[in-house]
TrEMBL record:
Residues 41-108, 110-180, 183-250 form the PASTA domain. Keywords: Membrane, Transmembrane, Transmembrane helix. The keyword Transmembrane applies. It holds the Pfam family PASTA. This is PASTA domain-containing protein. The chain crosses the membrane at residues 12-34. It comes from Belliella baltica (strain DSM 15883 / CIP 108006 / LMG 21964 / BA134). InterPro entries: PASTA_dom. Gene3D superfamilies: 3.30.10.20.
Amino acid sequence: MSQIKDSIKKVGIHIGIILGIIILLSFTFLKIFLPSYTNHGETVSVPDVTGFDFEEVESFLSTRDLKYEINIDSGFNSDLKPFTVLKQNPKPGNKVKSGRKIYLTLNSKNAPLLKMPNLVNSPLKNVQEILSNIGLVRGEIKYVPDIGINVVLEQKYRGRNIPEGFEIPKGSQIDLVVGDGLGNQILDVPNLIGMDEIDAEFLIIGSGLRMGRINYVTTDTVPQGTIVQHLPPAGAEVKTGEPIDLWISEIAKQRDF
């Protein structure tokens, strides 16, 4: 029996020694070797290189123990020189390990081509938003006599009218010819006095003019809603699209005493 106990004791001691060695090796690997191999705790703050010229980037990053790689896709900003850094990943201020690659997007040398949209007959307010969204710049606005107020009549690039679908560089300036709301045709103002408001408006618009300010005049002698005065007056010569101001009668309210 004593021999069996001695054997068991020796086996237990051996197992204990083996476990101790395993624990020691594991501790050494996890706490010493692995952190040293992966530069554990050694981080650097990513600098901001946007706006840098490409030639400056390599030396700037190498002094900070960082590398770089250029993205295949490039961007374009007409205000910056070609090969200027537009974007970077990771972003500035991020903490990364030494030797980490910073991925850079550069400004293209040549502007990408865009297909010109159709802006003709569109309101100027909408056109400005369209140009901005697709990467074009609104240039000079030239107003010409036309009944369509602030409506685009022509779209020009470098002084020439350009059709829908014409390819132009991104960032190009598009000049616009816009209607001022006044046509070239001379019209005589019709006589609106005595008409009701609805008929007067119908006649004004049908004559190529437009409604102006509405004023109300209190009277007891003219039916309510009747035109009692307008400017310009009947017979006056005006251009197409000019406004006509109206004075319309309204009945005075009776007071209870």
